[in-house]
């Protein structure tokens, strides 16, 4: 019983390859990005365009899919909170085993008849390539923790702050200067 929809943009029909090892085709696919590709700071917006340039090759164990996934990542700088966007290109390579394969490992991707689902491979590749702490610029200084001013706009910015535990000593110093 197939649970994959052959009309889905990220489901690939490999019927034309049959089970002949060495048979292959190349395909370029443009599809909407699935939900939840990233986190609150950086990610691929759901429904935005992703492009897959892939090669599908029949091998003895199943179908070997390799190629590139191209998407636009959007989010905010982890230091200054400015919006950022950049193109992301990642390489993928995954073996989809035939259904009758005796490998019961949960991590193993399997063909469903002649159909294979590219979404898990695309999801893993894109999410794992996103930066943990994205920056608008490597030299970004961020924001002042006290007043929120952009430190790149005021590099000499600082606040005079005296630890309240030392306030009494500061008072003595001020009296000595006056006297």
Structural commentary:
By secondary structure, this protein is mainly beta. It has 2 helices and 9 strands, in the order E-E-E-E-E-E-E-E-E-H-H. It has helices spanning 119-129, 167-178; strands at 11-13, 24-32, 37-38, 42-44, 49-58, 62-76, 83-97, 109-110, 115-117. The strands form 2 sheets. Strands 2, 3, 4, 5, 6, 7 and 8 form a 7-stranded mixed sheet that branches. It has a two-stranded antiparallel ribbon with strand order 1-9. A hairpin with a 6-residue loop joins strand 6 (62-76) and strand 7. The longest helix is centred in the C-terminal third of the chain and has 12 residues, at 167-178. It is elongated and about 95 Å long.
**Low-pLDDT residue intervals, each spanning 5 or more residues:** none
Beta-strand content: 25-35%
Number of separate strands: 9
Query: How big is the Rg?
Result: 27 Å
Q: What kind of sheet is the major sheet? A: 7 strands, mixed
Number of helices: 2
Multimeric state: single chain
Indicate the percent of residues in helices: 10-25%
- What overall form do the CA principal axes indicate? elongated
| Secondary-structure content class | mainly beta
